[in-house]
Amino acid sequence: MKYFFSFFLLCFLSAILYGQDDDFFxxxxxxxxxxxxxxxxxxxxxxxxxxxxxxxxxxxxPQKMMAMGRIDEYEPxxxxxxxxxxxxxxxxxxxxxxxxxxxxxxxxxFTILQEMAEAGDIRVFADERFKxxxxxxxxxxxxxxxxxxITYDPETYEEKIVITNSPIDPDAxxxxxxxxxxxxxxESSVMKVRILGIAPIIDEFDDETGILKYxxxxxWVYYPKIRTALARERVANxxxxxxxxxxxxxxxxxxxxxxxxxASNTMGLRIQDMFEDSDYDQLLEAELIKQELFNxxxxxxxx
Length: 303
Fold this sequence. Notes:
By secondary structure, this protein is α+β, with helices and mostly antiparallel strands. The protein has a domain at about 80-135 and about 170-300. The chain has helices spanning about 1-50, 110-120, 135-145, 225-230, 245-250, 270-275, 280-300, and strands at about 80-95, 125, 145-150, 160-165, 175-185, 190-205, 210-215, 220, 260-265. Strands 1, 2, 5, 6, 7, 8 and 9 form a seven-stranded antiparallel β-sheet that branches. Strand 5 (about 175-185) and strand 6 (about 190-205) form a beta hairpin. The radius of gyration is 35 Å and the shape is globular. The termini are far apart.
C-alpha cells in the first residue's frame, strides 16, 4: 500500500510537469507566429508605401487656411474724389527688430518674390514707373551672380578658368524700397495710403577692397497685382507659430518700421541730395515730411 501511494504521487507530479512544458512550448510557438506575422506586415507596409512621404507632415495637422487666403479688393475710387495726394518713398531696414520677419530663415520675403517671379505668377520691372518689364532671362541674370575661379589640373598642372553661377543669398537683401501714394478721399473725408511698388535693394561692393560702392534696387514689383499672391504667404511670428497673418495684411496694416527717403517734389530730389553733408538733417527732414502728412488731414477739421 505504501509503495502504491508513492507510485501514484510520482505519476501525478510527472503529469503536472509535462503539462506545464506543453504550455511553455505552445506559448513559444504562438510568440514565433506573431513575430513572423509582424515582420511580414512591416515588409508589406514598407513595400506598399515605398519611399514616399505622403501622410507625413511637419505639424499636428495640415494647414490649409493660409493657402486659401483672400484679401478684399480696393474700394472704388473716383478721380474727382481725390482732392490731394503725395508720393512718398521709404526704406524698410530688415535689421530692425520689427522687420525681422522679412529675414525669416525658413522663407524670407525675397525668396517669396523671387519664386513668384520665376514661376511667372507676377511681373517684375526694371524701373519704378513700371514701364520696363523684365524677361525671364533678364530676371535670372539679375538674381544670379556669375563668378570666375582659377583652378589647376592635378595631372597636367594646366590653368583652367571655371565659371560658376550662384544665386543671390537672401541674407544679402537687407533693405526694401517702398513707393506709395498718400491721398485724401473727400467722399469719406479720410487720409489714406496705397502702396504702388516694392523693390529689394542690393549692395554692390568693390571686389578688391570690399568697400561699399553703391546700393540699387534689384527689381520692382507692382504691389496691387501681387496682393492676392501675398495673401497666401504666412508671416513668421515669434509668439504664435500659427498666427494667421499674411504678407498682404502686414503691408495693409502697416506692421513694419521704415524711414522716408523721398517725397515728390519739382526737382525730383531725394532727401540725401538736399542734405548731403548732414545725416542728422536728413532724419529731421524725413520726420518733417511725416509730420506734414499727419497735419494735412488734421488741419481740415476744427475743434
